[in-house]
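User: Show me a protein chain along with its predicted structure.
Assistant: Here is one chain, sequence first, then structure tokens.
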Amino acid sequence: MQLDPIAEIGNKRAMTEPAPRPKALRSPRGGRTTEIDWSDGHKGVYPHMILRGYCPCAGCQGHEGTIAFIEPSDAQLQLDDIEKVGNYALALRWFDGHDTGIYSYRYLRALCHCEACVPEGTASRAPRQRL
């Protein structure tokens, strides 16, 4: 499944509303899930399979403007570090050395796989369409 971030970013309402910001991050070494507590009270759940599979960098996605899921190998799913990028994004560094993905806060919210964002019984790798 492909996501068209340009169509969603063009939404004037989405552009005028401030994106929630992370308040706390939990990503235990060796874990396969990262959790983010957001400034609006949302508790985000991010399986590493989803984060790595939807890495937004040009090396993974190319330059066409659509984002597709790229199936990562099991060895590519361990995070080494998470760094803040300005006031708008997080940079993820993976143990295999991949570190060019910059995940905007809006993009991370679209990738959330908590129970509220991915209803029970829905096996989805697709990000929600809200950027």
